Amino acid sequence: MLRAKQHIADLPAIIHGGVNSAALDGLGINPGNVLDFSTCCNPYGPPKHLRKAIREVNPSIYPDPESTVMVHALALKLGINPKNLILGSGSTEIIRLATAAYLGPGDKVVMPSPTYGEYELACRIVNADLIKFTLDEKGDFHLDAALFAAFAKSHKPAAIFLCNPNNPTGQYLSYDHVSMIIREFPDSLIVLDEAYIAFTEGAWNSLQLLKSPNLLIVRSMTKDFSLAGLRLGYGIAPKSIIATLKKVRPPWNVNSLAQHAGRMALSCDDYILRCCERINRCKHYLAGELIKLGLKVIPSQTNFFIFYAGDSAVFKSRLLERGFLVRDCASFGLVGYIRVSPRSMPDCRKLIAALREVC
Ligand SMILES: Cc1ncc(COP(=O)(O)O)c(C=O)c1O
Predict the structure, then answer these.
(1) Residue 308's domain is classified under what CATH number?
(2) Residue 269 reports pLDDT greater than 80
(3) Whose CA is closest to atom 9 on ligand 1?
(4) Do the Cβ atoms of 118 and 95 come closer than 8 Å?
(5) Number of domains within the chain
(6) 65, CA 20 to 30 Å: which among 50, 90, 94, 135?
(7) Per-residue pLDDT tens for 190-227?
(8) Which residues line ligand 1 (CB under 6 A)?
(9) Is the dihedral of CA 89, 90, 93, 94 positive or negative?
């Protein structure tokens, strides 16, 4: 009988936020009537001219496997050499390339927990050993970098994953802490996932760490410009790491629409800034109203936050009955917590009205 490798057969299903039309249909809910507060992309959608621009793309020819035009435009924007860049079909692909290229059976990988579930999946696919450093609820899930480094030292990791700011807790590590971890583990690959950096209050510039030979920065244009359906992310690293990742990259990994939309999006910096101001206003409104309702909100520096809801599965389904989708954090191992990411102010007001009924 045909059998998958045992560690592949044992892989867990990773749960993501977002509207699952089939599941909603099954519950008799029209997905078109649901306001989605569960995904953390830019809620204002892509800049208008992107929709028009992607109509210019010829779908009949293969995309440029090197994404040359987009890579050069992005490198120029970031002020780095194009050889320090690799594009991916979402930042998730960059994570997969990193584990495929640098990790193998039995390699130790340390990461804080809870965090983005795809790190675990990517590591388990290559049969690496996962070692989780549990974030303390009492300290609002803040990562104590010194304790984390001491913990990681005892495991001699081949890689360390840092999600900054962390999904789902929204906590953001300082430059000093990240650079300390990079320095302390010169023989480990440090994956610094900055998927939400564009939305982060008080963000510091991680490109100043690019000289570190063991650092891979991962970013998501999916989130920044709401291109979830096109999929676009990138990795920034020393040339040797980028060259290595390219060896395991599938051909034509970034489709033509994503390459073109990405290039057009690069001329829209003020769009992100304008969106961020509105997102922050909505986030502070939502958090403030939840606190008024007596709920415990964990402070976050980015475009989502978690709060304690008691029975989070029931809480989520009561909101869904009212047409609001939120993220139950039980799948992150955070039982009782709900994650929300703000939408427009009118939508946030509707959510708060529904929450008043549910609470
Ligand atoms: C921390 C983090 N990194 C990466 C991703 C993946 O984003 P992308 O759509 O760019 O693959 C997500 C998506 O939820 C995320 O939360």
Answers:
(1) 3.90.1150.10
(2) no
(3) 90
(4) yes
(5) 2
(6) 50
(7) 999 999 999 999 999 999 999 999 999 999 999 999 99
(8) 90-92, 116, 163, 167, 193, 195, 220, 222, 228, 233
(9) positive
